[in-house]
């Protein structure tokens, strides 16, 4: 297709494959072309011209509109109260009329803070962290802050690298279930950046922490299984570097008090890892399996079903965390409920107080609750 008729502004262009390129003001514009079917048509195409992108409104535009200086507009944006009320209102009206949106980065630079909280999690695919992030975000929003989330993929080395990235942009840092070595945590704590850790305790290290009572949760599961008559129990371990896994193992080391023999098997924290570990669980001779979390338990349950193993008739199975899917599996999972939303609220509020300069933040442990369902049964 050759040259097209001039546009209303006198610009011409060339159309190919249903699109038209029109040069202008240093930008390229793609224009929809509808080709005329009749050969006698005087025009070869009907052009539908895309409107130009609106020019970005600047602080200088606001100043002109309000009849004020750029410095005055800047003071209004930053909440400085030395601007006369009438002039300040004129500036705010001009911003509203022009649709001006100040640069968050520029404001942060002017105030010496970014208004951002950095949150690092080991696995965003795990719903355990979704509720925590949601609660922290709500607390941050109420305080006028935003949340920047990063995922380390269960890699301690990547975790340290991402933490350094977050420290460049965030006023405060929340590390959810960090896997990094003690030395790395100590180095971060020494930086002076407001920081809070969830689900990790490091004795002798000055870290603000909010943790879940994983120990008591495992003890509750042990007591439940013992009352059902089980004596040989298999624990499918979670991530090697997870403090939550260490706490589970610490609790299980005292399972003899319930008359239980506990076998442990490395596994992981995902459904796929639970699925892969199910055959070994059967070979262990255990009459009950405690999975690291509900995700793992659901993977085990799926594989058991494929193998024709009935839960709980042939073997009992428990999870941990109480994710939504635990109630809807077949059979529904016996598990331990962790109040993740509450954990996020506490962590978000505590980090906010740390960022405000408070130093009276006490460590806190969030309680858990046993939820008995149909995946565990009496030993026949």
Q: Could you explain the architecture of this structure?
A:
By secondary structure, the chain is an alpha/beta fold. The protein has four domains: 1-53; 59-111, Orthogonal Bundle (434 Repressor (Amino-terminal Domain)), CATH 1.10.260.40; 116-212 and 341-366, Response regulator (Rossmann fold), CATH 3.40.50.2300; 214-339, Response regulator (Rossmann fold, 3-Layer(aba) Sandwich), CATH 3.40.50. Helices cover 37% and strands 19% of the residues. It contains twelve helices and 16 strands. The protein has helices at 59-66, 70-77, 85-98, 104-111, 127-142, 156-169, 182-189, 214-227, 243-252, 271-283, 294-306, 340-355, and strands at residues 14-16, 19-24, 27-35, 45-48, 116-121, 146-151, 172-176, 195-198, 208-212, 232-236, 261-265, 288-291, 316-318, 335-337, 364-366, 369-371. The strands form four sheets. A six-stranded parallel beta sheet has the order 6-5-7-8-9-15, sandwiched between helices. Strands 1-2-3-4 form a four-stranded antiparallel beta sheet, with no helix packed on it. α11 links the parallel β12 and β13. It is elongated and about 85 Å long. It starts with 13 loop residues before the first strand and ends in a 9-residue tail after the last strand. Mean pLDDT is 85; it is low at 1-53.
